[in-house]
Design goal:
The complex is a heterodimer of chains A (about 260) and B (about 350). Chain A is an alpha/beta fold and about 260 residues long. Chain A contains 7 helices and 13 strands. Chain A has a 9-stranded mixed sheet with strand order 9-8-7-10-6-1-4-5-11, with helices on both faces. Chain A has a two-stranded antiparallel ribbon with strand order 2-3. The termini of chain A are far apart. In chain B, the strands form 4 sheets. In chain B, strands 1, 4, 5, 6, 9, 10, 11, 12, 13 and 14 form a 10-stranded mixed sheet that branches. Chain B has a 5-stranded parallel sheet with strand order 17-16-18-19-20. In chain B, helix 7 (about 305) links the parallel strand 18 (about 295-300) and strand 19 (about 315-320). Chain B is elongated and about 65 Å long. The N and C termini of chain B lie far apart (about 65 Å). Classes of the chains: A alpha/beta (about 260), B alpha/beta (about 350). At the A-B interface, helix 4, strand 7, strand 8, strand 9 and strand 12 of A face helix 4, strand 10, strand 11, strand 12 and strand 15 of B.
Chain lengths: ~260, ~350
């Protein structure tokens, strides 16, 4: 089985995040990490590929994004591909899907790709539409919110948990599957994994290496633009540590602030 | 079948709204979407499946409702799901875009078809995990701009759709303009106040049939949770009390507090996965999005898959024994302590203050 896992390098959710005056997402080049939901996709890929399969971890982003695929290599991926190009800056989800699809097709030139796995959303965008758009660009099915993934001959089958109920969906390979945090328990990279990752192949592609029209991507290709953005006033937070009276104090607070009647 | 493409009054844009209904009863976030749509142009509604209620739609200013039968079977496989039912009975076979079985690829196909036929330049839906997928697919097919989880929408001076959204865990508010000629917007529930029109006018009904191609891009449904699709009252609750891992399976205190506050009990994915409460109580990525006036998290850590389902709550209260729990980053009132000590005290004091 050949599986491509798409991952993203995102600003650390614990860090201060915001927009610049021009309405661009502020990205500190030094702060960033592998998008946590993607860890479940990497783990699922490693399990499905087994000892005979191959997992390729793929990302699109600024140069520091290679950190995200390195973490994938540490967690069981065999090869990594980074697509980076200044022309891609400001790409929206549609452009990102176009580029990732082109990369998947190019990866497929070495041998058919059976499955593309992703996490359900990125912690910076949280729109959760990329897996759907990627499948649309590849003209394959998207099986989303997958809590369980099984591959059987030429079919993939998932249990999709959404809107408070479950469905089991099936589609022929190749397909795109986005996995939730209920799918597995991601492994922590061990010393062997970290050391071994250093010698695994990491390829970098620019837009010129892919068959993508530059006018369709980047800021010029974006379908929306931010007119203005402002930090919402930080709520006045109250934090109590229980000294045996917190329950009582909380009740008083709720009543005094009109939160309970 | 009426495939009339009678154009709207010259120059009036058409806005298409997907009606979210079950058993013929329209869910309230649809009224919000129809209210918002009136600011954008002539309002058309799409009704999938049976049970069309034109009177209710007329009260919210719908000019035309497009009733759609979407037929298809998805990609065939050796064990195709087939209980021998007839097309049109909503059992998932034949009908691939019904409220009982909302396969995103099929719903999107139907919606995009209707949008093309009625010349809509904007498509509006209520944001749920399923409709966000639908929205993305429709935008892809129509080459439209997409805004997900908008809290308000209007037209800019040049006629482009402009939407208000929140980013970074609702800590930033952004105004986003769609630069394409067509837009798809998924509105966050409970963001827009629903307002009926003063005088309801008769609604024109147009019937459509759309055939979803049986290609590899449409998954097939092999099994689904038995029983009718019901959205729990959780989604519309004014007060929500949610239990998480910290309850260790004992929801008694959570339920007691919910009763005292007149609220509804919810839970994290962990709690429902453990079987401590039914899956329909899940708040978060795999479940319901809530936007109550008051949310109380009891033994809830606040991991992102839950947070995205409740961070729009007006006031967030959290009780957790771990001072590093992420929920304290978004809580307005946080109590670090043992819920088995704090909650009994809280509940008792609420009773006492009211007495």
């Amino acid at each position: 089985m050949r599986i491509v896992v798409c991952v993203k390098h995102v600003p650390d959710p614990q860090s201060d995040r915001g927009f610049t005056a021009e309405g661009r997402v502020e990205r500190d080049p030094d702060e960033g990490t592998l998008n946590e939901p993607d860890e479940y996709a990497i783990e699922a890929a490693a399990a499905l590929a087994g000892p005979d399969g191959e997992v390729v971890v793929l990302t699109m982003g600024p140069p520091q994004s290679r950190d995200a695929v390195r973490r994938g290599l540490q967690r069981g991926a065999h090869r990594a591909v980074v697509v980076t190009d200044p022309a891609l800056e400001g790409s929206d989800a549609f452009s990102t899907a176009t580029v990732l699809a082109a990369a998947v097709r190019r990866i497929g030139q070495d041998g058919p790709v059976d499955l593309v796995l992703t996490g359900v959303s990125s912690l910076d965008g949280v729109t959760a539409v990329l897996p759907t758009l990627l499948a649309a660009e590849l003209d394959v099915a998207h099986l989303g919110l997958a809590a369980d993934v099984e591959v059987d001959a030429d079919d993939v089958r998932v249990r999709r948990d959404a809107d408070g109920r479950s469905q089991v969906l099936a589609a022929p390979l190749p397909a795109v599957v986005s996995v939730t945090d209920r799918a597995n328990q991601p492994r922590y990279p061990d010393v062997a994994g970290i050391v071994g990752a250093r010698s695994k192949p990491l390829t970098t592609w620019s837009l010129a290496d892919l068959d993508v029209d530059p006018r369709r991507v980047g800021r010029a290709g974006a379908r929306t633009r931010v007119l203005r953005a402002a930090a919402r006033g930080s709520r006045d937070r109250v934090l109590l540590t229980d000294d045996g009276t917190a329950g009582t104090r909380l009740a008083t607070y709720l009543l005094e602030n009109g939160l309970i009647r | 079948m009426n495939h009339s493409t009678t154009p709207p009054t010259e120059g009036t844009p058409v806005v298409l709204v997907l009606v979210d209904h079950h058993d013929g009863v329209v869910r309230s976030p649809t009224w919000e979407a129809l209210t918002a749509a009136r600011d954008l142009g002539e309002v058309h509604a799409v009704w999938l499946g049976r049970g069309l209620d034109t009177d209710a739609l007329a009260e919210y200013g719908v000019a035309v409702v497009h009733r759609v039968d979407a037929h298809g079977r998805g990609a065939a496989g050796p064990d195709g799901y087939d209980d021998g039912g007839e097309d049109g009975d909503g059992d998932g076979v034949g009908d691939v875009a019904t409220p009982e079985e909302p396969l995103p690829a099929a719903v999107a196909h139907a919606l995009a078809d209707v949008a093309g036929r009625c010349g809509a330049d904007t498509v509006l839906l209520t944001s749920t995990p399923t409709t966000r997928e639908v929205a993305a697919l429709v935008a892809h097919r129509l080459e439209a701009g997409l805004v997900v989880d908008a809290t308000a929408v209007h037209r800019g001076p040049e006629g482009h759709v402009v939407a208000a959204t929140e980013a970074f865990g609702s800590t930033w508010a952004a105004l986003v303009e769609v630069v394409r000629d067509r837009a798809v917007v998924a509105l966050r529930p409970y963001s827009v106040a629903p307002v009926p029109v003063g005088t309801a006018r008769p609604v024109e009904v147009r019937q459509h049939r759309t055939d979803v191609p049986a290609g590899r891009a449409v998954p097939r449904v092999v099994w689904r949770t038995p029983g009718p699709a019901t959205r729990p009252e959780l989604a519309t609750a004014d007060v929500v009390v949610a239990g998480g891992r910290g309850t260790e399976g004992d929801f008694a205190l959570v339920e007691e507090l919910a009763d005292l506050l007149g609220g509804t009990v919810g839970a994290t994915g962990v709690a429902t996965h453990e079987g401590w409460i039914g899956r329909e109580a899940t708040i978060g990525q795999s479940g319901v999005t809530v936007a109550p006036r008051l949310y109380v998290g009891v033994g809830v850590s606040g991991a992102v898959h839950h947070r995205v389902g409740m961070e729009a709550a007006r006031t967030i209260v959290a009780v957790n024994s771990d001072p590093d729990a992420p929920i304290f980053e978004i809580a307005d009132v946080g109590v670090v302590g043992d819920l088995f000590t704090v909650l009994p005290q809280l509940n008792a004091e609420i009773r006492r203050l009211r007495a």
